[in-house]
Amino acid sequence: MPAQREPLEPLELDVDRHDPAYRRWLREAVGKVQSDANRSADTHLLAVPLPEAWGIDLYLKDESTHPTGSLKHRLARSLFLYALCNGWIRPGRPVIEASSGSTAVSEAYFAKLIGVPFVAVMARTTSRAKIALIEFHGGRCHLVDNPCEVYEAATALAAETGGHYMDQFTYAERATDWRGNNNIAESVFRQLAAERHPEPAWIVATAGTGGTSATIARYVHYTQRETGVCVADPENSAFFGGWRTGDPGVTTDRGSRIEGIGRQRVEPSFVPGAVDRMMRVPDAASIATIRVLERLLGRRTGASTGTGTWAAFRIIAEMLARGRRGSVVTLLCDPGERYLDTYYSDEWLAERGIDITPYADRLERFWVTGSLD
Ligand SMILES: *Cc1c(COP(=O)(O)O)cnc(C)c1O
C-alpha cells in the first residue's frame, strides 16, 4: 500500500499578524528615541593645548556630554532603533543587556523612555556609581561573580522572561550607521573642517565592543580619506593579540582594569581588517595620562580616555621625530567623576600595585623634549 501522503497545503496562503495596537506602540517608541536625538546637541571637539612650535594639533571628541554621560549614549540609541525596527522589542517585555556598566546606564535611559523594563547583567566588581546610575534610570542590576558569565546569564534571563537580549558585543557594529547620519566620525570630520589640518593624520579609538573603531574606520575608508585609524588596547585584553595574529579565538584569563575597554575575548563587533594599527598601553600609563589631562583641560576623564590619549601622544612624538605636521584626534569617552574612588585614588592604585610615576615622568619629559621614550 502506498504511504499515506500529508494533505497538501494550498498553494496560496496569507498569514496576517498585523497588530494595530503593537504598530501604534512601535511608532511611538521609535518616535521617542528619534526625539531624544533631535533634542540633543552635538558633542564638542576640544582642542588640547600642545607646545606651539610642534605644529601639531590634538583634539578630544568629548563624548561625556551626552545625556547619559558617555559615548554609549550613541550606541544605546542605535541598538534600540535597530531592535525596535527589527521587531525584537515588544511592549511590556524586558530588555536585557550584558555590560561592563556604561552601556547599561544609557540603555536603562532609553528603556525608561519607551516604557519597557530593563535588566543589566554585570560583573559584581562594577563601580557603585554605575550601578546607582542604572537604578536611577529605573533599571535593575543582575550581578554575576565571573565577568565571563555575563553573556550566558543574559541569554538565560531573556529566555526566562520572554525579553530581548540586546547583545551589544554582537550588534554594535551593525546597528550604527557607519556611512553617515551624524555618526561620531562624520561629526569629527565636520568639526575639523575649519582647522589648519582638517584631515587628521590619525584617529585613535579604544575598544570595548569595537563598534566605535569600526564606525570610524569604515567611515574613513568610505569617504576615501588618508587618515590612519589606530586602536589603543589596555592590559589583559584579547583585541590586540587577536588583531596581531589574525586569530579571532584569542582569549585572556583576566579581566581589564580599564572600565569600558579591553575584553577577554575578541568581540564580534570588532572589525580587525578595517583598523590600520594597534597599540598596547600599560594601565599605569593610561592612569598617568588622565592626571596630565586633568591639568591640561581642567577636567577629569575616565581611564579609557587616558589609554587613547597615551597612544595619541606616542603618535605625536613619532610625527615630531619625522618632522611631520598635522592633527590627531582621540575620544573623551566618559567623565572622571565616576572613578574618584578608583583611578583618582592613590590608595586604590597602591592596593593594586599600580605605579604611575615612571609614566608621569615620561609625560613630563615629553612636554619638554617631544619624545615619549
Ligand atoms: C564602551 C567604551 C569604550 C569603547 O567603545 P566601543 O565602541 O564599545 O568599542 C571606551 N570607553 C568607555 C568608557 C566605554 O564605555
From TrEMBL:
<dbReference type="InterPro" id="IPR047586">
    <property type="entry name" value="Cds1"/>
</dbReference>
<protein>
    <recommendedName>
        <fullName>L-cysteine desulfhydrase Cds1</fullName>
        <ecNumber>4.4.1.1</ecNumber>
    </recommendedName>
</protein>
<keyword id="KW-0963">Cytoplasm</keyword>
<keyword id="KW-0456">Lyase</keyword>
<feature type="modified residue" description="N6-(pyridoxal phosphate)lysine">
    <location>
        <position position="72"/>
    </location>
</feature>
<dbReference type="InterPro" id="IPR050214">
    <property type="entry name" value="Cys_Synth/Cystath_Beta-Synth"/>
</dbReference>
<dbReference type="InterPro" id="IPR036052">
    <property type="entry name" value="TrpB-like_PALP_sf"/>
</dbReference>
<keyword id="KW-0663">Pyridoxal phosphate</keyword>
<feature type="domain" description="Tryptophan synthase beta chain-like PALP">
    <location>
        <begin position="48"/>
        <end position="334"/>
    </location>
</feature>
<dbReference type="InterPro" id="IPR001926">
    <property type="entry name" value="TrpB-like_PALP"/>
</dbReference>
<comment type="similarity">
    <text>Belongs to the cysteine synthase/cystathionine beta-synthase family. Cds1 subfamily.</text>
</comment>
<comment type="function">
    <text>A cysteine desulfhydrase that generates hydrogen sulfide, H(2)S. The H(2)S produced by this enzyme modulates the balance between respiration and glycolysis, and contributes to redox homeostasis. Probably eliminates toxic levels of Cys (which can induce oxidative stress).</text>
</comment>
<dbReference type="Pfam" id="PF00291">
    <property type="entry name" value="PALP"/>
</dbReference>
